[in-house]
Amino acid sequence: MGRGQGVLTVSEAQARRRRLRPDFTTPGLLGLPLAWLAVFFLVPIAIVGLYSVGRLTLDPGPHTVTLAAWREFLHSPIYLKLFWKSVKMSLVVSVIVVALAYPLAYYLALSGTKRKYVLLLLLIAPFLTSYLLRVLAWKVILGNQGVINSFLFWTGLRSPDHPISQLLYSRFAVMLVLGYIWLPFVALPIFVTLESLDRRLFEAATDLGATRWQTFRRVTLPLSLPGVFAAFLFVFIPTLGEFVTPSLVGGASGYMYGNQIVDLFGTGFPDWQTGSVLALFLLGVVAVLTIVFSRFLQTREVTAG
Amino acid sequence: MNVALSRRGVWLLRSFFAVVVIFLYAPIALLVVFSFNNSQLPSFPLSGFTLHWYHQFLVNADLRSALGTSALVAAISSVGAVLLGVLASIALVRRRFRLKSPVSALLLSPLVIPYVVFGISLLLFFHAAGIPRSVLTVVIGHIVISLPYTILVLMPRLQQIDVSLEEAAYDLGASRLRAFRSVTLPLLLPAVVSAYLIAFTTSFDEYAVASFVVGTRSTFPIFLYSALRFPNQLPQVIAVAVVVISVSLVVVIGAEVGRRVAERRLG
């Protein structure tokens, strides 16, 4: 300091303040959140990377960097097949759930109902209650002694010796429960997109002689696609890495890729190196999906706007 | 005339909406019914009314301690997440800086990471760093998970608050901190409260990440998960489920209604 004290003109002072603002406060604001994520989010992922190439290992011993686990993974039919099975399961769940959620969002946004926010809250509220307890509810419903089977025995529609046993501990159970869990949430991004559409577009389409169905197909649906893709991504990504629901209601046939990762870190036969490879592969797929879809969404928004 | 839907269309969609809502709430309603059912097995026919299961869980020490641990973890981690979220949101909304889009992508990225991957990352990190697993390690993980949710709640509200209010405070001689405390924070408060509640419920319910980094003190979801594997505990667990689901529904709906009312009043 020292030089020019007390002779700052107003514009100089303003310029100085403007200079000071970004220089001083932005790192002050971002420092803590970014440091937290660096230490407890990025570094841990990097450590998984070190385990995957054998730089760090579970047992003490010579540490040589090797790509053997990666090579094995890419040539192993078991892991990739399991991954593909999980992709198919989450794909089916996501498509069905988005298809069911679309008419719900459409009703809320465009039917002119006055209670749309109340109804939206009614729809979303189950999503905000405990995840595990909603899985529990289905375990109670689907089991061999569960609500559906015991109801069938009671009413005599089925003999107690032959319960419908494929209800629980099956691929079907996993997909049903995942769909149940994600359905309320998925309506939200679609609703937001439909809600923000310019209503004059529909009127213009009608004025030009389009039927409601044509208006929907040529105007509403294309413009709401960003919300549909966002909704799809919101279900697909978490269900792809899912392990909790399959471990509770999936049995052997509902076993997913996420369960394999957990088992490789479990107490049975831990193989942290292979487990790290599987985890990073999943992370890579999710990262690529997110980046590709987010670019796509942005360009859609530009062309739609 | 509604140009998006015919009258028949409205009727069809309304019926469909009702069916879905029934599908969503029926399993929860069944839990309520069976929580009062006087039988070890949750199955038909119903065998009489009892409060036995509610009584049993009230005297179950493991369960109560798990609820307490979860409340503690949720309370601490949500304060941390909201604090970091407020700082980050102000930077993202009010400041110009280079690399803004990668920075905001990083801040929101815990939203899309598969929790199984984040869970094992933390496990390996704490293992490599020689940090024993405990309540603290769960708190650390939950702050990371909740942070993007708090940012997503805080940012839109901050965008609504007129910058000129803060600038007026500076012109009147307020320091940055003073302007934040006396002008921005009161206007932001409803969003801060709902961010806190979202972070709290996220942490309270979180199983996947906690399962990798939890120590000897179980959180409530960890307790639930292990109880789900023992059928003799099932009726009590159903009773707990009913209580927890009811409380969270009341909190969630109350918070949303409260936030709307408060924000309407604050403008």
Written overview of the protein:
The complex is a heterodimer of chains A (305) and B (267). Chain A is an all-alpha fold. Chain A has a single domain, classed as MetI-like (MetI-like fold, Orthogonal Bundle), CATH 1.10.3720. Chain A contains twelve helices and no strands. Chain A has helices at 10-52, 68-75, 77-110, 116-124, 131-142, 147-154, 171-195, 199-207, 212-240, 244-249, 257-264, 272-304. Residues 1-7, 19-24 and 299-305 of chain A have low confidence and may be disordered. Chain B has 267 residues and is mainly alpha-helical. Chain B has one domain: MetI-like fold (Orthogonal Bundle), CATH 1.10.3720. In chain B, 77% of the residues lie in helices and 0% in strands. Chain B is built from eleven helices and no strands. The mean pLDDT of chain B is 88. The chains are: A mainly alpha (305), B mainly alpha (267).
- How many domain regions of chain B? 1
Radius of gyration of chain B: 23 Å
Helix content of chain B: over 70%
The percent range for strand residues of chain A is under 5%
Most strands sheet of chain A: none
Percent of residues in beta strands of chain B: under 5%
Q: Give the class-level CATH name of chain A.
A: Mainly Alpha
Query: Mind telling me which CATH architecture of chain A this is?
Result: Orthogonal Bundle
* Quantity of strands of chain A, as a count: 0
Low-confidence stretches of chain A: 1-7, 19-24, 299-305
Q: N-to-C terminal Cα separation of chain B, in Å?
A: 32 Å
CATH homologous superfamily annotation of chain B = MetI-like
Helix content of chain A: over 70%
User: What is the CATH topology classification name of chain A?
Assistant: MetI-like fold
**CATH topology value of chain B:** MetI-like fold
Shape of chain A: globular
